[in-house]
Design goal:
CATH architecture of the largest domain: Roll
Bound molecules: FE2/S2 (inorganic) cluster
Shape: elongated
Number of strands: 7
Order of helices and strands: EEHHEEHEEEHHHH
Oligomer: single chain
CATH class of the largest domain: Alpha Beta
Distance between the termini: 103 Å
C-alpha cells in the first residue's frame, strides 16, 4: 500500500507501508531552487516572445493596423458606372481611378502618371471629362460615371472608337482609352472645329508613341461622320 503525504512546507513524502520499507522524495524550497525556477520562468517568457516575433513581424508587414483603421474609416458611396448602380464602402482617400480599377475591376482607364499630367485615366463624370487619378471617389457620390468600357453600345463600337481604328490612332494603345474619352468630350464640348482646336483641347492627353496626327484625323473624321458622338 502506498501513501502520499504532502506537508505544509511543500515537501512530498512517498512511503510504502506494505513491507515496512519507506523512502522519501523531498522537494525542498532552497534559495538555489528558487533562483532556478525564476530563471526557467524568465527564459520561457523570452522563448515565447522569440517565437511570437515572426507573427508580429508578419502583422506589421501586412499593415494590419492600417487595414483595421481603414475599415473603421470607410464611408458609403453610391455611383452609377456605365449604367450600373453601385453601392460601395470606400476609404475617403481612394481616388476614382483606383476605385474603378481595383474595386470595380474596370481596368480600361489607365494609370499613367497618377499626377494629372498624362490623361490616360480620363473618364466622364456627369458628362464631363475628368482626370480620375486626381479625383477622390467620395466626391462623385450620386453621380454618373462613364469609362471606356461603357462607351460602346453592346457589340457596336462608338463612332470615335471606330474612327481611331480606321485612322490607326494608336500604337501601344496605353493612352488610347484616355484619348478616346477626351476626344468624345472634345467633340461634345464644341472644341473640334478644326485641327488646331483639336490639338489644343486634346493637349492634356499625352501619347508617348506619337500618334498625334492620326488621333487628330480620327477626331475630325468622327465629327464629320455626323453620327451621335
Ligand atoms: S494617370 Fe491621371 S493624368 Fe496621368
Ligand atoms: S499609343 Fe502608345 S502611348 Fe499612345
Amino acid at each position: 500500500m502506498y501513501g502520499l503525504i504532502l506537508n505544509l512546507n511543500s515537501r512530498i513524502k512517498i512511503s510504502t507501508m506494505s513491507n515496512d520499507k519507506s523512502f522519501e522524495l523531498e522537494e525542498k524550497q532552497t534559495p538555489l531552487h528558487e533562483t532556478r525556477r525564476r530563471f526557467l520562468k524568465h527564459s520561457s517568457a523570452l522563448a515565447a516572445i522569440t517565437l511570437a516575433s515572426p507573427v508580429l513581424v508578419k502583422a506589421a508587414e501586412n499593415e494590419m493596423d492600417e487595414k483595421a483603421s481603414a475599415w473603421f474609416e470607410k464611408v458609403p458611396l453610391q455611383l452609377e458606372v456605365n449604367g450600373v448602380l453601385h453601392k460601395l464602402s470606400v476609404e475617403p482617400r481612394v481616388t476614382l481611378l483606383d476605385l474603378l480599377r481595383e474595386q470595380l475591376h474596370l481596368t480600361g482607364s489607365k494609370k499613367g502618371c497618377d499626377y494629372g499630367q498624362c490623361g490616360a485615366c480620363t473618364v466622364h463624370v456627369s458628362g464631363k471629362r475628368v482626370l480620375s487619378c486626381l479625383s477622390l471617389a467620395v466626391m462623385q457620390d450620386g453621380k454618373k460615371v462613364t469609362t471606356i468600357e461603357g462607351l460602346a453600345n453592346g457589340d457596336n463600337l462608338h463612332p470615335m472608337q471606330e474612327a481611331f481604328i480606321k485612322h490607326d490612332g494608336f500604337q501601344c494603345g496605353y493612352c488610347t482609352p484616355g484619348q478616346i474619352m477626351s476626344a468624345v468630350a472634345c467633340v461634345r464640348e464644341g472644341h473640334a472645329e478644326n485641327e488646331e482646336q483639336i490639338r489644343q483641347y486634346m493637349s492634356g492627353n499625352i501619347c508617348r508613341c506619337g500618334s498625334y496626327p492620326n488621333i487628330v484625323d480620327a477626331i475630325m473624321d468622327a465629327k464629320k461622320g455626323g453620327g451621335k458622338i
